[in-house]
Design brief:
The complex is a heterodimer of chains A (125) and B (185).
Chain A (H helix, E strand, L loop, with lengths): L3 E3 L7 E5 L4 E8 L4 H15 L6 E11 L1 H20 L3 E8 L4 H13 L3 E6 L1
Parallel strand pairs in A: 3-4, 4-5, 5-6
Antiparallel strand pairs in A: 1-2, 2-3
Chain B lengths: L1 H16 L2 E7 L3 H14 L3 H21 L3 E4 L4 E4 L1 E7 L3 E11 L3 H13 L2 H13 L10 H9 L4 E6 L4 E11 L6
Classes of the chains: A alpha/beta (125), B alpha+beta (185).
């Protein structure tokens, strides 16, 4: 399967999903006006990727800012991987990176961690 | 001609007196947001502060973009975009970010209830409400949690006012105060 690579620009995060290693990273800023249009290809890629059982996946968030609409899309991404983890033999870990002084970003990570039943690491940098 | 110049000067003076550092009327695209973001981040010294301010500004702008009852067709986007006003005032102790736009009269009651409800919630309750709402399916383009997010990030209540304009629309004014210094500090 092809990797999914999207370059960042002002209001769009970079996406680096490596099909071979299962290392999936989203980073930067995300405040597209129509987040669904931006995230749709990401959902499609994940749905295809999780067709094959028993993959080991690490999902890395390296966000510096995202709007509320993106916040919902992130949850949807995590939900896809959570379903894969519990229903299809996947082994999924989420790493949430935050700038160590950015308490809002830490809090965002903590909220997802409470919502999601996967191994969820909050990692300051 | 000279009338226009006088009006413009008055406008400029009023803005200055009210410590306005940015005002905008029209459709606020994400391209403009990106520019404003850059400017805010260089202008405001504290990292956390400038991020909070930018986050509130994006939510206000995108509320207008998606929910204003007044639309303009955007040629570059090939679809309608909401029109409204945005204002940032820079006071010594805090910033005030405001948005104003038309909303359909039938939405007024629900919006007033929602704002009033948000203002009754403690920090912890706001968090729970945010997480709960984020999971709920929405019919629209957004996540329907912008108002909660702004109340949370700013740590201050929503200041809002709705005025009936005519039989169809009302004007919704919303202000968010962002403290320049940490409340906890």
């Amino acid at each position: 399967m092809q990797n999914l690579l999207i370059e960042a620009y002002d209001y769009v995060p970079y996406v680096d999903f490596q099909a071979d290693t299962g290392e999936l990273t989203i980073g930067g800023e995300s405040y597209h006006e129509y987040t669904l249009e931006f995230f749709e290809p990401i959902f499609e890629w994940l749905k295809e990727y999780t067709q094959e059982p028993n993959r080991t996946i690490t999902l890395n968030f390296r966000m510096s800012y995202f709007n509320t609409s993106s916040s919902r899309r992130f949850l949807e991404i995590m939900n896809i991987l959570q379903a894969y983890h519990f229903n299809n033999g996947g082994s999924v870990v989420i790493n949430w990176y935050y700038e160590k002084n950015d308490l809002d970003m830490l809090e965002s990570g903590e909220e997802y961690a409470e919502d999601i039943q996967l191994e969820f690491n909050l990692i300051p940098y | 001609m000279s009338d226009e110049k006088t009006t413009l000067f008055k406008y400029f003076r009023d803005m200055s007196q009210h410590e306005v550092i940015l005002s905008f009327k029209g459709t606020i695209s994400q391209e403009i947001l990106a520019d404003v973001g850059l400017s805010l981040r260089t202008r405001l010294s504290s990292y956390q502060n400038s991020k909070k301010t930018f986050a509130v500004f994006v939510e206000l702008a995108q509320n207008i973009y998606h929910h204003s009852a007044q639309k303009e067709f955007s040629i570059s986007k090939g679809r309608p975009a909401g029109v409204g006003v945005l204002l940032i005032q820079n006071h010594p102790e805090h910033l005030v970010l405001s948005s104003g736009n038309l909303i359909e009269n039938f939405k007024v009651e629900g919006l007033l209830e929602r704002c009033a409800y948000i203002n009754t919630l403690s920090e912890e309750d706001l968090k729970d409400y945010y997480v709960k709402q984020r999971k709920r399916p929405t019919g629209g383009v957004g996540a329907n949690i912008g108002l909660i997010d702004m109340a949370r990030r700013s740590g201050n209540p929503l200041e809002y006012n709705i005025t009936k304009v005519d039989e169809e629309n009302s004007f919704f004014a919303l202000s968010i105060r962002v403290n320049k210094f940490d409340n906890e500090a």
